[in-house]
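Assess the record.
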Amino acid sequence: MATENQSDTFDIGGEDTVHRLGFGAMRLTGEDIIGPPDDEEEAKDVLSRATELGVDFIDTADSYGPAVSERLIGEELAPYEDTFVATKGGLWRDDRDGSWPKCGQPGYIRNSILGSLDRLQTDQIDLYQYHRPDPEVDYAEAVNTFATLKDEGKVKHVGVSNASVEQIETARDVCEIATVQNEYNVGDRESEEVLEYCEDNGIGFIPWAPLGSGELDGLDEVADNHDATEYQVGLAWLLQHSPVMLPIPGTGSVDHVEENIAASDIELTDEEIETIEN
C-alpha cells in the first residue's frame, strides 16, 4: 500500500490549498499532554516524516504542553514554504490536575498569540482558532478578538472549535470563518449537523479525535478486505464521508504516521460505507 498522501485537496478560506489528510500535533508532548516528550528528536522525526510523505496541513494549540508542540513545530519545520500550520488559543493548562480551563478574554487571547508567533517562528499564523467557548465571555466579543488579530496581519484565517451551528453563525457575523474543529469520528457523529452546515457554506471541518478513543468496533471485516487496520478504515471513511472533512490524526510514532497516511489510498465501496455507518 502506498504511503504518500493520496487525499484530495481543500481550499482553506477559499485560497490556501492543502491535502485533506493532515496531522494533529497534540501527541508530540509528554504524558497527559503536559511537558516535553521523552524524546524530542523522535517527535521532530515524526513531523519531518509526515511532511516528506505529503502532509501539508498541521494542527496544534498553545495549550499542548503547554507551548511544547508549537515549539517543536517551529524548530523542525520553520520557515513554512509548503506547510500550512494551524494553532489555537483560548485554553490554558493546570498541571496540578491536568484540567483545561477556558479563557476567551481579549487580553488573554492577544497575549497568547504573541507566544504562538514566537514559538512557531512566524510573523503570521495561517489559521488561528478559538479553542473552546468561554461561558464567561460573550461569544461574539471573543471572536472579535480573533478578527482584530486578522485585521492586524497576525492571523491569515480565523477558525472556531467545539462550536454549535448557532455559535458558528454568530462568529460569521463578526468575520469570515474558514474552519470549524469539533469532535467527530465513526463512533461519535454528534456534530453531523455542524458538518452539514460546513458543507453548505464551504467551511472546512476538522474532526478532532478522528479515531475516537481507539476503539473502532465492527470495522475488522472491512479492514480485512483492504489488508488494512481498523484505524486506517476509520480515516478512509472520514475522507469519503465529506469533501470538506480535514482529518488530523496524531501520533508520536513514525511508524504510525506512515500507517495513517497510507489510509488515504484506501477506496471504500458503497457497501462497505453502509456497513460502517450502520
Summary: Residues 106-120 form the longest helix (15 residues). The chain has one domain: 18-212+244-250.
